[in-house]
Amino acid sequence: MDEILRVNDFFCGAGGMGLGFHQANFRLAGAWDFDKWAIQSYTENISPKAKNLDVTEMTASEVPYADVWAFGFPCQDVSYSGRRKGMIKGETRSGLFFEIMRLLEEVKDKPRVIIAENVKGITPYLDTIREEYAKQGYKLYYTLYNTKYWFLPQNRERYFMVGVHQSID
To answer: Does the CA dihedral 21-22-26-29 come out positive or negative?
Structure first.
């Protein structure tokens, strides 16, 4: 019998990553975004489990166990076409990455895998991300994809930063 894997979808938006996990037969454990309109779309397209909640206000008790945590954290402060303020904990929207690290630190049962997605402008912060993943017990693997190679009518480069828990070979 195949194991059913669960995913938590943070900064879920209208469901870009959630849809992919849904199509891969993952069970959605939870999804959160602070934008009520995004939650409405997510609810219609993927799951009614999505909640309108700001990650800065979340606690570990609100996060159900999931095998995978997915999070496409805000890019405005690291995007080449954005504010370029950087990824600063507590000060920038892109710094919300650290809120996921806080939640990881608080939860008792850690996910097996964490996966973040962000723009190419995150490149100067990859070492910081590696350090933060390591603090939480994850080995970082990352790659840069361009959407044009996946048959999408756009030219957008995105990093996928996968953390595999250190207990997994």
So the answer is: positive
